[in-house]
């Protein structure tokens, strides 16, 4: 911007779209100062570099405004976690699956986890087996995003709600 521009010659565009052509940096700065605006380098890699005469503060403000608007329209995904163990009873599985189903019905993503304690680390297939028993109970309302896989001491499975 302004004096920080190193190129000797620039292709200059005015604030109203007016083309000044290829002129020296000093000349472009004089034109910008005459209008009370800034000289901003738009594409530094072009031959010759392209600069635009504009109100930099206003430009920066409008970019920030666009970012805020984009963030406002963004949908935040909530991930709920349901934990199991390798030696879980059938009625406990049913109870936890009921919670997972509620989360999926509300449109939330669900992470099903089995924690491997002590010697269970030597048999991660036990955790995978628990998740394989859980999946048929929620497959009618969920989509399997990631199949059962091990991450450290956990066996994880990601399920997302079905699109309506």
Q: Please, could you describe this protein's structure?
A:
The chain has helices at about 25-35, 55-70, 90-105, 125-140; strands at about 10-15, 20-25, 40-45, 50-55, 80-85, 110-115, 140-150, 155-160. With about 160 residues, the chain is of the alpha/beta class. Strand 3 (about 40-45) and strand 4 form a beta hairpin. The chain is elongated and about 80 Å long.
Fill in the keyword field for this structure.
164 residues; alpha/beta; four-stranded mixed β-sheet; 4 helices; elongated
Give the topology.
Layout: E1 9-13, E2 19-24, H1 25-35, E3 38-43, E4 50-54, H2 56-72, E5 79-85, H3 90-105, E6 109-115, H4 124-138, E7 142-151, E8 154-161
Parallel strand pairs: 1-4, 5-6
Antiparallel strand pairs: 1-2, 3-4, 6-8, 7-8
Distance between the termini: 50 Å
- The mean pLDDT is 90
Which residue ranges are poorly predicted, with pLDDT under 50 across at least 5 consecutive positions? none
Structural class: alpha/beta
Rounded radius of gyration (Å): 29 Å
Output the number of helix runs: 4
Shape label = elongated
What percent of the residues sit in helical stretches (DSSP H or I)? 25-40%
Strands, count: 8
Strand content: 25-35%
Q: Order of strands in the sheet with the most strands?
A: 2-1-4-3
The succession of helices and strands, N to C, reads EEHEEHEHEHEE
Largest sheet, if any?
4 strands, mixed
């Amino acid at each position: 911007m302004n004096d920080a521009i190193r190129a000797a010659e620039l292709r200059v565009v005015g604030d109203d779209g007016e083309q000044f052509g290829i002129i020296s940096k000093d000349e472009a700065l004089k034109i910008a100062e005459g209008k009370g605006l800034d000289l901003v380098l738009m594409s530094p890699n072009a031959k010759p570099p392209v600069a635009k005469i504009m109100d930099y503060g206003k430009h920066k403000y409008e970019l920030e405004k666009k970012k805020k608007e984009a963030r406002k329209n963004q949908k935040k995904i909530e991930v709920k976690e349901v934990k199991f163990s390798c030696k879980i009873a059938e009625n406990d599985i049913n109870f936890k699956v009921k919670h997972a189903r509620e989360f999926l019905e509300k449109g939330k993503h669900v992470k099903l986890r089995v924690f491997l304690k002590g010697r269970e680390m030597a048999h991660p297939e036990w955790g995978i087996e628990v998740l394989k028993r859980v999946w048929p109970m929620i497959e009618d309302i969920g989509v399997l995003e990631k199949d059962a896989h091990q991450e450290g001491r956990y066996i994880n499975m990601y399920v997302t709600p079905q699109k309506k």
